[in-house]
């Protein structure tokens, strides 16, 4: 099976890595072959191609190769939230999600045990399925204009309810 993927040009170097290290690691762990030009062609068995596609897409969305490799674990998934296209609104929302010196993003990652990347006009989240859902809900609240305090309270309540025995 073959699959072509388009990713931002500035992220192609990250997929290749120093002396091709990242590319070889992806190929080794997914049993596929990557051919990199203006786009990326992935060849291999269909299940392996899907795994490699997820990793390459995650790197294209701004994740480090190490965080993207979390997608090799079947327990983990990636969710992508599109942000508005208007430049002024986009800048404001990205600032709300990232926070001063990355504090908000770090807090969201800590509360939800996920990895979050704000890149271009999207926010991508990698982690366990339930945790990704909670992080997505929290980010959507920030986008809608909820205060950071309200979002943190929501995350604390989710964490408490997850810790309670059924």
Give the secondary structure arrangement, pairings included.
Elements: E1 2-5, H1 9-16, H2 21-30, E2 33-36, E3 40-43, H3 46-60, H4 65-68, E4 76-82, H5 87-98, H6 103-112, E5 115-119, E6 122-128, H7 129-144, H8 148-163
Antiparallel strand pairs: 1-3, 2-3, 4-6, 5-6
Helix pairs in contact: 6-7, 6-8, 7-8
The ordered string of helix (H) and strand (E) elements is EHHEEHHEHHEEHH
Mean pLDDT: 94
- The radius of gyration over CA amounts to 17 Å
Uncertain parts: none
User: Which percent range fits the helix content?
Assistant: 40-55%
- Approximate shape: globular
**Quick one: how many beta strands?**
6
Kindly report the spatial arrangement of strands forming the biggest sheet.
1-3-2
- How far from one another are the termini? 45 Å
Oligomer type: single chain
Number of helices: 8
Q: Which class do the helix and strand fractions yield?
A: alpha+beta
What proportion strand?
15-25%
Sheet bearing the most strands, described?
Answer: 3 strands, antiparallel
């Amino acid at each position: 099976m073959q699959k072509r993927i388009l990713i931002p040009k500035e992220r192609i170097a990250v997929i290749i890595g120093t002396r091709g290290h990242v590319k070889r690691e992806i190929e080794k762990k997914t049993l596929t072959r990557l051919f990199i030009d203006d786009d990326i062609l992935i060849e291999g068995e269909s299940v392996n191609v899907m795994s490699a596609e997820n990793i390459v897409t995650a790197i294209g969305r701004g994740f480090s190769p190490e965080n993207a490799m979390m997608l090799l674990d079947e327990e983990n998934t990636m969710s992508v939230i599109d942000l508005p296209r208007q430049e002024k609104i986009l800048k404001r929302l990205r600032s709300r999600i990232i926070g001063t010196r990355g504090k908000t993003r770090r807090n969201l990652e800590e509360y939800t045990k996920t990895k979050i990347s704000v890149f271009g006009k999207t926010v991508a989240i990698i982690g366990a399925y339930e945790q990704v859902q909670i992080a997505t809900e929290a980010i959507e609240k920030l986008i809608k204009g909820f205060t950071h305090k309200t979002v943190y309270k929501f995350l604390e309540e989710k964490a408490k309810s997850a810790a309670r025995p059924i």
